[in-house]
Batch of 2 targets.
Target 1
Amino acid sequence: MRIVIKIGTSTLAYSTGRMNLRRVEGLCRAMCDLKNAGNEIILISSGAIGMGVGKLGLKGRPSDMPTKQAAAAVGQCELMYTYDKLMGEYNHTVAQILLTADDIRDGRRCENFRNTLFRLLELGAVPVVNENDTVATDEIVIGDNDTLAAVVAADIDADLLVLLSDIDGLYTADPHKDKNAKLLSEVKELTEEILACGGGKGSELGTGGMRTKLHAAKIATEAGIDMIIANGADPDVLYNILDGKPFGTRFIGRRAGGGKGEER
Ligand code: GLU
């Protein structure tokens, strides 16, 4: 399977902006194992700004663009250094790909991106993709990595998209506020009712939230790709893919977009 895995800032960093090493180590190990089992792994990693905040000793997520971009430039190095080190321990090679919305919109640049990514997969590397935050401004920004992950998954004809976050999946209501909220294990159609479960708000250092995840689900499922939202707190969650066990909320891909999913 060609699996796109997105790790959110809330999963890989503490609220201090420093990396949650235990968790990231576990996830890297599981991704290497998935690769050893014959899967292709494409990692979409957030956390550049969050890591930069920690490394530069800033008080919190900056609100002005130049400081955000400076933090991203610092944090992106930290991210790649860590992935390289941890996956290198299991003999896997990582490759950095930074994209903006313009790169996706421009036919030729998108083609170059796809060619590079496919070649990296043939060479056995793990592409690690993030938005090119240092140049992405309002006009060319994708804005959040849930959307970026779905766009990439659709562009490269992935079989599965997994969004790892700090929540177990999609609930019928906000589980922090409503104790009767129920986790939905499968979503076959993105009805108005489902979209209304989205709510708002991402984490302190990250960008997303359930709304961007549902937007990603729309892009992925329309491209025929199943998408899973799961809690990245326990790296074993990725082993459930290997074991074929259900986890989180699975959004079922449709054939209408011309992807690989089946009409169900
Ligand atoms: N590109 C941003 C970063 O690496 C993350 C965007 C997001 O959290 O969705 O900090």
Target 2
Amino acid sequence: MIRSAVVPVAGLGTRLLPATRSQPKEMLPVARKPVVEYVIDELAANGIEQILFVTGRNKTSIEDHFDLGESAVTKFFYTRQGSPRGLGDAVLAAEHFAGDDPFVVALGDSILGLHAKSQAVSRMIEVFEHNAAACVVAVEEVPLAETGQYGIVAPSGVENGAVRVAHLIEKPGPEKAPSRLAIAGRYIFSPRIFAEIRRVEADQRGEIQLTDAIERMCTAGLRVYAVQLTPEERRYDVGNFASYFEAFVEFALADPVHGAELQEMLRKKFEVLAV
Ligand code: UTP
């Protein structure tokens, strides 16, 4: 049973400046809740009982936010990434927390599904356990024209109903993409990932990429699998303004209390524009 998750929230969020000049992007509200609260709710609904936040400078509001958490069962722990040297480096900060057990990694800026009702992590845990996997990644089908923005998996077949991953290609153009399956913000790792992260060299920006460490697992012959998100579990990536705005509008329109009012207001606005 996998009961632990790591939520990296130490990135600088430079694509969301100036909104992120002094506050974390993970605390930006999407309708009524900050992004990261959806992530935590989703993890709790998938049986996760302890969560380690990997935080950094200017991120204390995240700790404050969860002080008075409504979730009675989830326990929160915090550690820091000295400087934001990439997602791989952030996961490395979880080594002591993880110990000898497998664990989930959930990006603190990515919501799965409109009400964060996704059961993807539970399906990933099942695949991990049934296949003696070293790693399972969530993937989402993206348009061919957009493969250059994501880590894309090269599938090698299906084993016990799960897609086996032969390789990961970082941001391939449409002509080079081995599939349209993009890594989508949720991972499960065996502790072997730490040794692989240590062997990854920093990229041109000085960042240690998590996908490079997973690719090392693939080339070492370890079992890596992909679990596809359903359309209802689509990923909202609050990493740039276009997708942040989309997430905010969709969640606000679907709000049980204020949604109808907002729909009516927008309908009137568009009616005026259409005249
Ligand atoms: P991104 O790659 O989107 O984050 O990380 P970023 O570096 O904050 O964004 P830009 O490029 O400057 O706009 C995805 C998740 O991983 C965390 C981020 O906080 C985010 O939740 N992360 C990223 C870390 O914890 N540490 C890092 O060094 C990088």
